[in-house]
Amino acid sequence: MRxxxxxxxxxxxxxxxxSALVAxxxxxxxxxxxxxxxxxxxxxxxxLVVDANPVPRARFPVIDVHSHHWPGFTAGRLDEIAGxxxxxxxxxxxxxxxxSGSTLRxxxxxxxxxxxxxxxxxxxxxEFRGGVGPGFGERAAAQLERDVAAGAxxxxxxxxxxxxxxxPTGARVPVDHPELDPVFETAGRLGIxxxxxxxxxxxxxxxxxxxxxxxxxxxxxxxxxxxxxxxPSFETMMAExxxxxxxxxxxxxxxxxxxxxxxxxxxxxALLDRLPNVYAETGAILYELGRxxxxxxxxxxxxxxxxxxxxxxxxxxxxxxxxxxxxTHDEYFDYYRxxxxxxxxxxMGLPDGVLRKVYYRNALDVIPAIDRSLFPAP
Length: 378
Prior knowledge:
There is one protein chain. By secondary structure, the protein is α/β, with parallel strands linked by helices. Helix 4 (136-149) links the parallel strand 3 and strand 4. It has one domain (62-374): Alpha-Beta Barrel (TIM Barrel). It is globular. It has 12 helices and 8 strands. The chain has helices spanning 2-32, 75-88, 102-113, 136-149, 181-190, 215-220, 234-247, 265-274, 286-289, 293-302, 319-327, 352-366, and strands spanning 62-67, 90-95, 120-125, 154-157, 194-196, 253-255, 278-281, 307-308.
């Protein structure tokens, strides 16, 4: 018993000493006039010396299946972008913001007028501003059929679907609401893929406290928070999405942002195993892959036929981070957006056969409207 109390006394003494040292350091800083740093201000320069192999141009031509170029985009702008794409070895951009009706036709016509018309395809979108009531699904399916006839290469659902799309009573429309079944069945019949952004990263649904991995982002951008008293939970949205995928086995789905499971590759693998009509794309989740390079490489090798390259925001200076992560074995390098990832990145060193599939071959199979003549023969 005496030894027990001696041990407790030792721990308490150690705590007192540590507290005194911290207080002394703080007093010293205050006396010297040295300001305290915030999290945003603390950006230490690493002293680690390792090989660095930046990759300004992808090893093989790339189809970016997740790009956004909003209405008002011009043929002249596409001509300018084509030069940037050539430098990066980006062969084709999939514009997920094509709209519907006249807006979709404008997107298709604009691309067609460019000197580089084969370098972009347009996906259609549904118009939810009037809400989802009886008959909406049939009307939307008919509009989708017209949009595909006008040149749409696929259908994209934005992240508002399942979060704040409403029915006439003001109730949230879940992702698996049966009213929308005709839309997904029509996509399957027409042979076009449906790329779905469902939900947000799991941390966005959690309390914004010292344990939240995305604390900095959610502090800088508080509109991204999805508190439980206002929104469905992460698990609720994932379950609705998975039921939607399963209900339409003849429709090809692309899970945007790797389904927000790039931090849990075992869960994503189980989803792909269970649902052979589902693919995943890499938009805006590179920070997850770069902190687990061995596990990520093993996943990409196992599911090399089910992964498509996607970036999300078109920013030419950011693509080389993807090339470096996918193509090299580099260690401890920066990510391009600190509020996404306060950690460093490591290269996955993917084999050439896997790179070819992820960069362009899988997309050619999933999106038939893309011009195959732009790519090497199989």
